[in-house]
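Teaching note: in complex prediction, the entire set of molecules is handled at once rather than each chain in isolation. The prompt given to students was simply: 'Predict the structure of this complex.' The entities are:
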Amino acid sequence: MNEAGCIFCKIIKREIPSKIVFENDLNLAFLDISPISKGHTIVIPKKHYSTLEDIPEDELAETIKVVKKISINIHKSLEIDGYNILQNNFAAAGQVVKHFHMHIIPRSYDDDKFRLEIPKNQASDEELNEIYGQLKF
Amino acid sequence: MNEAGCIFCKIIKREIPSKIVFENDLNLAFLDISPISKGHTIVIPKKHYSTLEDIPEDELAETIKVVKKISINIHKSLEIDGYNILQNNFAAAGQVVKHFHMHIIPRSYDDDKFRLEIPKNQASDEELNEIYGQLKF
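The expected output is the structure of the full assembly:
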């Protein structure tokens, strides 16, 4: 269930050292070695899945439960004011490692270098209706 | 289970109109009226929880399953190259509406205005060890 050459699979197999803060049967949480902020943690399933589209529902459910558990611990243990959960799918969205993973990014009012530049635009009703027609179940 | 004054609770109760692309017993997905990109969708539990720390594990699991389902549909239906899942907790992390929600943000190589400015820094072993000591289970 590991993929040759996958850096996260190597972390799971301890072929690459990392600071593993939590582990259970299905998931692993470790510190990002290039942290966006202090305490930046990555949660991964131990089985190799590329994106959100590949991880089975039940295993995804277990991963998000671990994300919640770790997030609460980060919030309690570090002096932070909040945190973002970020999960990128495909290169266009900034996914670098092709092993499904969720980032926990601690945020604080002081010394916050993280910037989410979001050009929000009020959508017209026509625009929303067009998308609505394409997406409605 | 609704909270007075909560804009998302009002969307659930149809007191505020919105483009609801999916709904089941526990969750609702609707188009963001100030989209970061075309197809920007928000998934929420119908019960009011403030942050990731408040929503019970089992309900969180159901919400992420809906996020997966909607994401696959967005990827199939719109001409996009990827997407981010973003979930903000507390004001310091950019949370505006205090009703737990997950963003699905479509991304494309063309015409992508979304910028995640991330000053990544290689952490020293001392820095990682300090955090590791605080976070390890």
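Point out the following to students. Chain B touches chain A through 71 residues (CB under 8 Å). The mean pLDDT of chain B is 91.
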